[in-house]
Design goal:
The protein is mainly α. It has twelve helices and two strands; from the N terminus they run H-H-H-H-E-E-H-H-H-H-H-H-H-H. The N and C termini lie far apart (about 85 Å).
Length: about 260
């Protein structure tokens, strides 16, 4: 096996990636599925890394037992998803995946499922509550200042559902990022577009609810102050209370909207 020398890119023979084992377990897969399965497993198991070059198209197709056109189309699809960099005359190189591309793909997939937003909100709660605990331990002063700035922006946009919803999302996103967990940040980013839309929609529904503006300020302020105190239990509790009360405001707003008497 060749190694990186004088800036040369490592090329790993497919045999080293236990291809025979993968194929033995995937006889029922189509050609394209074999390519995706091989690439996925090799990445997950750390046997392929960013910067490494794949075998030539001819060798790779022979080793995988697929036709060259099928392999070519599969590699193009992987390149579109940001996993590969196909360079004319040089070959295909593994890329560090762009989370923004994966986020778009994830959003498209979820958006096609009915009533998915409730599931997304449950995922949000799980991610944010763990992230805020980590943030109480890991957040830097810069992180805290950023969250504080987001809180100020939230307070300045209370009467604007669109700007206010965006500010609300930014506040919560900053908390997740302050947790300094790449996995949690990536997962949160994957549902970010759906959450941002949800924040705006919730503001539009509840903006006229009695007490909602005072609640928004106080709830977010208490969450922030618990983080400043570096108290993970209190931060987790305040955040969960915020989610529960916010849902109650939304429920009341919906009931009120559908029980208004028509004007006479």
């Amino acid at each position: 096996m060749s190694s990186k020398q004088s800036g040369m890119t490592t090329v790993r023979p497919v045999e080293e990636l236990t291809l025979s084992t993968m194929l033995a377990e995937s006889d029922d897969l189509s050609g394209a599925e074999k390519v995706f399965a091989f690439f996925r497993d090799a990445l997950v198991e750390g046997r392929l890394r960013p910067g490494e070059r794949l075998l030539s198209e001819r060798e790779f197709a022979l080793q995988l037992g697929v036709s060259r056109p099928v392999l070519r189309e599969a590699l193009r699809s992987l390149a579109m998803l940001g996993f590969l960099d196909i360079q004319h005359g040089r070959g295909a190189f593994v890329k560090q995946a762009d989370v923004r591309v994966l986020s778009d793909f994830f959003t498209f997939s979820l958006a096609q499922q009915p009533d998915i937003l409730d599931d997304v909100m449950q995922a949000r709660i799980a991610i944010e509550c763990q992230a805020i605990r980590l943030a109480c331990q890991r957040a830097t002063e810069t992180d805290m200042k950023r969250i504080g700035s987001c809180l100020t922006r939230l307070m300045d946009t209370l009467h604007d559902p669109v700007e206010g919803g965006a500010a609300d999302f930014a506040f919560h996103q900053a908390i997740v990022e302050a947790g300094r967990s790449e996995a949690l940040t990536t997962l949160y980013g994957a549902i970010g577009d759906l959450l941002r839309r949800s924040h705006v929609h919730r503001r539009e529904v509840t903006v006229t609810s009695p007490g909602i503006l005072d609640y928004l300020v106080e709830a977010h302020r208490e969450v922030f102050l618990s983080m400043v105190d570096r108290d993970p239990d209190a931060a987790d509790r305040k955040l969960r209370e915020h989610f529960a009360i916010g849902d109650e405001f939304r429920r009341r707003s919906l009931i009120a909207a559908f029980t208004k008497k028509p004007a006479t």
